[in-house]
Each structure stands twice: as C-alpha cells, then as structure tokens.
Automatic annotation (TrEMBL):
Pfam families from the UniProt entry: TfoX_C
Domain TfoX C-terminal: 3-78
Signal peptide: none
Protein name: TfoX C-terminal domain-containing protein
InterPro entries named in the record: TfoX-like (IPR047525), TfoX_C (IPR007077)
Gene3D superfamilies recorded: 5' to 3' exonuclease, C-terminal subdomain (1.10.150.20)
Length: 85
C-alpha cells in the first residue's frame, strides 16, 4: 500500500482528511474514485469545495489538478453542483 502523499496533489492535510473518512492508501483512493471520495469528505467536512474534487481527480490520474481537461472539469463541476441541491 502506498501513502496518499506519494500521489500528485495530495499533501499532509488532504491525507489526514482522507484517512478520517476511511481512505488510507493511494490504491484505495483509485478504487473508490474521486467522486465517492469527495462525497465522503463533503459529509464530514462541509467546507470542501470544487478544487478538492479536482485535486482528487488529478491525484488519481497523476495530473496536476489545474491541468485536467475542460470536459473533466465540467463533469466534476456538475457533480459538485448536484450535491449542493
């Protein structure tokens, strides 16, 4: 199992939050996926925002979060907006 901080975009603070919602390794984050991980975080930490979702998606694909495709960003934004309803 690899530490979460070995993934791009994941620092100590995000690692702590992910561990607190039951995601303890990079393999687990990849298996769970960005949307489900974000949903878990949102339930425990209501202040997480769209950038956190981008960060998770970027980590899973080994891409800087600000380099995600526009289509991916649009899809993630729609998901985030849906959660706020």
């Amino acid at each position: 199992m690899s530490d979460l901080t070995t993934m791009m975009n994941i620092g100590k603070e995000m690692e702590k939050k992910l561990i607190s919602v039951g995601i303890v390794s990079s393999e687990e984050l990849i298996e769970v996926g960005a949307k489900d991980a974000f949903l878990r975080l949102k339930q425990k930490y209501p202040n997480v925002c769209l950038v956190h979702l981008y960060t998770l998606e970027g980590a899973i694909h080994d891409t800087e979060y600000n380099r995600l495709s526009e289509d991916t960003k649009k899809e993630l934004k729609e998901f985030s907006d849906f959660l706020r309803k």
